[in-house]
Design a protein that fits this description.
Blueprint lengths: L7 E3 L2 E4 L2 E9 L3 H12 L4 E4 L9 E5 H9 L11 E3 L1 E6 L10 E4 L9 E5 H15 L2 E3 L5 E3 L4 E5 L2 E10 L6 H5 L4 E17 L6 E7 L2 E8 L3 E8 L1 H9 L2 H11 L7 E3 L4 E10 L3 E2 L2 E3 L5 E2 L7 H22 L5 H28 L3 H16 L1 H11 L3
Parallel strand pairs: 3-4, 3-13, 4-10, 7-15, 13-21
Antiparallel strand pairs: 1-2, 2-3, 5-9, 6-9, 7-8, 11-12, 12-13, 14-17, 14-18, 14-19, 15-16, 16-17, 19-22, 20-21
Amino acid sequence: MDTVDDGTVIDGARADGQRATVDIAVVGGGPTGMIATLVAVEAGWPVALVAPALGNDPRTTALMMPAVELLERLDVWRRVEDNAAPLITMRIVDDTGRLPRAPEIAFDSHEIGRSQFGFNIPNEVLNRALHDRLEETGALRIETTADAFEDGAPARIRTPEGDVEANLVIAADGAHSLVREAAGLGVRRWSYDQAAFVTSLSHERPHGGTSTEFHTEHGPFTLVPLPGNRSSLVWVGRPQAMERLTAMDPGPLARLIETRAHNILGHMSVDGPRAAIPLDGLVARELGAGRVVLVGEAAHRFPPIGAQGLNLGLRDVETLGGLLKAARMTGDLVGLPTRYARKRRLDVETRTIGVDLLNRSLLSGALPVTLLRTASLAAAHGITPLRRTMMRLGLGG
């Protein structure tokens, strides 16, 4: 990917010494930001990505099929598919120890005519493939952090390498988005007394393409398939307990994980980096205004339940891509943030509220809450049309 160079013009994006001028600037170099850049390039706009160089990311991401289809269209999927594991069955087990106990439920992708719901992939693999694809497009990359943002005409991003001016800024710079805060787009925030411990495992028995989510009294404990006899683990619990897991010796840690997983995958070994990530939530009060649109965690953030996080962000990007293509016909980006915000509001609000309520239901021992959660899972288990509707909604339908 080209970087700022004195007097260089790249597909309509101009870099003059300490200033770059583009139609669209994307701030944030995670998967959502890189995919947003590719979508803007696909729509035919001169675009720059303002983000530091890639860092290490020990996590994995479960991409649902709409996200996979987007990556196929952007010529990214073929670069990562050999390192991705299909998610054929999504299994939920009530392991709270509370009564009444909800029935175990298995969502099978074949019930809705799909070979799989999606694929699980290491973030390192996905990030590298996105970076390489962006290099091929010739999009302008300014490999630095954004220090300040001014929502003017044009908008201006200030960086240690100089200013970037753009008619539209896509904020993909995470939950603590500098662009969102500087643009005055407020958020509603909340916190949980939880953290997510993440690592990867090798195990004795095959997972068969089944992701198993144990609902415990402190949050979900989820095993998600990786290629071969390997899985990624997302274990949500009290912050102090999750931090202790990062320092445990590998052998005792693996035995503890086996026990928590009820030995469904047999003997385990911890074979990847570990991290404990504090959990919180937010949703922006406005998803776009002025010359700014918010995507990914700059717009919404919630606990890792049901593989909704990045997939919701990629639906942001997909919606934005359609608007960018339509705007390219007129060459006018005025009003696009408002149209984007209107289109995304319902999906973002309902997903955020739904995941938040499910997570809080696990933390509550109150009998009415337990009864409601149990009844909901029992209905999904026993009523086929309802179960199929839930599966389609999980894919973003």
